[in-house]
Amino acid sequence: MPDDETQTPTLNRGTAARTPHDTRAQPLPGSADAPAPWLLRLIAVGLVLAALNLRPAITSLGALLEEVREGLHMSGSLAGVLTSVPPLCFAVFGVMAPRLARRFGAGAVVCAGMAAIAVGLVVRPYIGSTAGFLAASALALMGIAVSNILMPVIVKRWFPDRVGTMTGLYSMALALGTALAAAVTVPVTGALGGNWQTGLGVWAALAAVAVLPWIVLVRDRTPAPGQPAPGTPAPAGTSAAKAPGPRITRSRTAWGLACFFGLQATAAYITMGWMPQIFRDAGVSAGTAGLLLAVTMAMGVPLAFVIPRVASRLKQQGPIVVVLGMCGLIGYGGLYLAPAAGAWAWALLLGVANCAFPLALTMIGMRARSGAGVVRLSAFAQSTGYLISIPGPLLVGVLYQHSGGWGLPIALMAGLMIPQMVAGILAGRDRTIEDEC
Length: 437
Hints:
The protein is mainly α. The protein is built from 23 helices and no strands.
């Protein structure tokens, strides 16, 4: 279908430069190289279940951050460190994902990632110390990190003619999991006796369920279209060291995408980590603050499906970047001036702004011609982007503690929207990393 064929413009423009490997990576439907329909359905189910688990570890903590701080005797600055752990782990562990996928297969790596999430979430509430809590959180976040990187890669390899649709599908599932954790963590904690440890630990069950489809994929050794089976030695002259490929650091588009990804991640993790506390300090109850965060995250459920499909039809994604950025500016302005009076409106606007994440994932799939190019670009943009996002939540915690209010932190959040829009316009231009390199 033309609206789903995200890669069509770039493939046509680069036909003369494509290698035989690129051609084999996208077999025609019904050809001998096409994967079995049941395998594609299983991969789709696995993508959805994995995506549901990519944010509850973070948003469930945001909903109970005050209780966790009291239970572990954390200062505001230390809590800021805690909210900076997710992007740090994503940056550090994300760079490992492509190498692990080449060695063991993407399915095996995602399966291990889901298992790591389950173990980390069930262990961290009961470990009894701040250091142990951080270590168990890091284990869960390591599983999230490698899965984050491999989602666009899996879509590109197995659904090359439906990049927009499949990106929208798992982005919608990701937003649903994010919103669900924000909305029900506080009520579930109350229903389980008010124990914050139990309220955080229950999310391990969802991760355990997500392991199941990937176990089947690990056992199935069918190679991805146009790819050798994991562990198969590369043919002579085609080793990773000798394989032709773009030098990502020479691409302005790659840097623009990395900066856009990093700045939207900064906004997202500040929102997930601190927005409930902003509302609680403004006089909103804990349960309502959790619902407001859930509304913000829930905006991504429909929009995460719509935005990638719309973006895939446009040659340039800059207009979408600007619309999302303006929603963020208005939302932060309202949060500064009347956090409690207009709370629901600000939550909705910030939810729209947070949909820069599925847009960034879509652009990763559009800014490279081949599966190998998407692997490089996904690892570079996400890992570099998460490094860029690390200081944001920490700085918000420090400003909050030392200024005694939310004025300066919210001004910082609003100010970061400007460079995010600039970077997004640069990343959204109609070109690929192969063109620039």
